[in-house]
Amino acid sequence: MLEKTSCCKVNLLLNILGKRPDGFHEVETLMHPVALHDQLSFDRGGKDIKLTCSDPVLPVHSRNLVYRAAALFLKKAAINEGVRIHLEKRIPISAGLGGGSGNAATTFLALNELFGQPLTPATLHELAAALGSDVPFFLQDRPALATGRGEIIQPLEFFPALQGAYLLLIHPGFGISTSWAYQQLAKFPEAQNGRAGRAEKLAALLRAGDAAGASRELYNSLEAPALHKYPLLELFQEFLRENGAWAALMSGSGSTTFALTDAKGTVERLLENFKTKFGLKCWTATVKMSENK
Question: Catalytic residue at 76?
Fold first, then answer.
């Protein structure tokens, strides 16, 4: 049996540059791994894919990204043997954190290890890109600038501006559909047709250690429809900025809000103040930003 952890991510910037002829949107995004993990176990045997999951809400058939990743891998590698996979789910679902995409990428890497590396890294990337735009990011473990529809990955070094920083994640208890968020962009033409180059600019500021400059450049095009429908998320951000966060933003298509702080003590006080203000119904987590393992 092979045991693997599967991390999540935040989008420090998600800039949508317009709709493509293939129906997808052209994006530039700066993603950072986050040290919160699901746990997966893999075992060879049988004739079919057998997936179990600790969360009864998630399907365990072909609608699950883990199942689909396993099916793609076995077909591409021409393997007739089956696999047994168990997913212990800890990352919130439909949260903008890429938990499912991370699970899928971990499945590709784990099965390739379990069956003796039959597929090259380039082939794994092709399979990951075919499965979902965020999946290729999780084949590696560093921050990255992603372009295209999100599948073209440029790994980056960890940013000096985020060394020592802490992250507060807040999931409000409801999810936001990625397809809904993108469909709604037509009502927000400025958000759907962003100015190219923002991701490179933010990365340069973070590399230079300029947290103050970077804080003004964090941006997410999908906040336009999300915050319009769910004004509570905007209230979260305003409160976080007023109570010690140097930046606050929605990750991905939401609904998770994240806040960046300069120290562990600051993020702990921020979390307590948030709970006092908004109650205890939200899922929350704090994590050191420069760690992803």
Answer: no
